[in-house]
Amino acid sequence: MDTRRQRIRRKLIFIFFLLLPLTLNYYSPALMTQGTAERVATFSLLLWTAIFLTSFVLGRSFCGYACPFHGLQMAWETVRDKPLRRVRYLRWIKYALWGLWVGAVVAFAVSTSGWERFDPLYNTENVVSVDSPQNLIVYYVLRARDPAATRTGEACVLPVLLPVRRVGHRGNEGAARAQAARPPPQGRH
């Protein structure tokens, strides 16, 4: 079913995907960890914290409307002729990677006594993430993961790497339960 909302959602994801060479560093868990080790709060720290916290209320809306990593995978899904399949071990890899990532950020924050300053352009001197041949190589290596993730059965590579999607799913369930528990609206008297 191709509703107006779905067309808008796909256009937004495509726009965020096209902007990825400009914004790649702002999604980087590596820069967030490195910045924390240097007592610098980066934009990626702010972004991922906001995604995590809002997922309790908004569910997976970030994944569905603003995730730039989902754009190319949507294209791969349309040309793939086989149905996606699930690979069991990916769940454990996801939680191990997430634990290492969050654990490193927390460990660095504790060992350095927190953050001294906020630098939204940390290691992004020209505002653009892919501004040199070295950064272009990183960009294409990250893009090369997309067909592999789609081939293994995940519609998006981020569920493999980030359990935020699962938190968002729980947020969707909680919102549905809260809606069902509300009494029906009463008419005006």
Give short descriptive properties of this protein.
mainly alpha, two-stranded parallel ribbon, 2 strands, 3% strand, globular
List the helices and strands and how they pair.
Layout: H1 4-18, H2 20-23, H3 29-37, E1 40-42, H4 43-58, H5 61-65, H6 70-79, H7 90-111, E2 117-119, H8 133-152, H9 158-161, H10 164-181
Parallel strand pairs: 1-2
Helix pairs in contact: 3-4, 3-7, 4-10, 6-8
Describe the structure.
- The chain has helices at residues 4-18, 20-23, 29-37, 43-58, 61-65, 70-79, 90-111, 133-152, 158-161, 164-181; strands at 40-42, 117-119.
- The protein is mainly alpha-helical and 189 residues long.
- The protein has one domain.
- It has a two-stranded parallel ribbon with strand order 1-2.
Describe the structure concisely for a colleague:
The chain is mainly alpha-helical. The chain contains ten helices and two strands, in the order H-H-H-E-H-H-H-H-E-H-H-H. The chain is 65% helix and 3% strand.
Determine the mean pLDDT.
77
Q: Please compute the radius of gyration using only Cα atoms.
A: 19 Å
Separate helix tally: 10
Coarse structural class: mainly alpha
Q: What would you call the shape?
A: globular
Low-confidence blocks of residues: none
Order of helices and strands: HHHEHHHHEHHH
Question: Strand fraction band?
Answer: under 5%
Helix content: 55-70%
Oligomer: single chain
Main sheet, how many strands, which sense, barrel? 2 strands, parallel
Order of neighbouring strands in the sheet with most strands: 1-2
Number of strands: 2
Number of domains: 1
Distance between the termini: 40 Å
